[in-house]
Amino acid sequence: xxxxxxxxxxxxxxxxxxxxxxxxxxxxxxxxxxxxxxxxxxxxxxxxxxxxxxxxxxxxxxxxxxxxxxxxxxxxxxxxxxxxxxxxxxxxxxxxxxxxxxxxxxxxxxxxxxxxxxxxxxxxxxxxxxxxxxxxxxxxxxxxxxxxxxxxxxxxxxxxxxxxxxxxxxxxxxxxxxxxxxxxxxxxxxxxxxxxxxxxxxxxxxxxxxxxxxxxxxxxxxxxxxxxxxxxxxxxxxxxxxxxxxxxxxxxxxxxxxxxxxxxxxxxxxxxxxxxxxxxxxxxxxxxxxxxxxxxxxxxxxxxxxxxxxxxxxxxxxxxxxxxxxxxxxxx
Length: 332
Known about the structure:
By secondary structure, this protein is an alpha/beta fold. It contains 15 helices and twelve strands.
């Protein structure tokens, strides 16, 4: 591992800009690979990072190295993949074409299949899975705001990787059972679609029992499918995955008390799927609810609530912006 070589954020969006920005502010040599529209915005304004903890830092445009040409990967010591799940194979092809064989590849993506996809597409490269527990939303052109708590979690097996990506504001730990961490995060990410459909901030949505009950039903369906497949799930917090449905269904006055011990969410936090719909981008519904549905089908288990949520997101992706309530989702 040559830590003098650059870290390339491969597919810089909200998560990539926030993580890469903190790495750059922490003294790492960081290059961003992303789309021309974002490059234009950041070339003018630089990168502004804020956090629920009070962090408020700027990376001036003069210090920001944002490229749209994948040849930026040619010197990479570490490529951090932050594209949406549907674009993983495309990014893997770019890494295969441009990055040196001794570069490390780290997936910081939603879903459970991306590390496997990267390993299959990149024989000979060292690939590690990672999990981002927190939410980042882009506000305006240049501000990327972290609205919830938790450390990065990565697979073990690559000595020195944790230290390379651990900088102020970006804690990182190694998971002994990384697949269970991935599935635990997926359970929580089943709320991404509900938050997008609700139009509310995460905090406001989660204070309403009708929305939490929909999430509880989705999680319960997913847990049945996981149990049938013999797959574990770990939320990484004091709240075990098996108790999530019951916790989500408690009265509104009680939920903040129970949730406070597991996660902090500020008033600006929204899901990445909400941002995708606002910006007219395809969502990751196939990698989240879609993955639950596929697993359930393989085990002959019905998951009607997950299916209804997928159908509602499809309508939103098609341009239907009619108001959506929990009752409408249940009746769909």
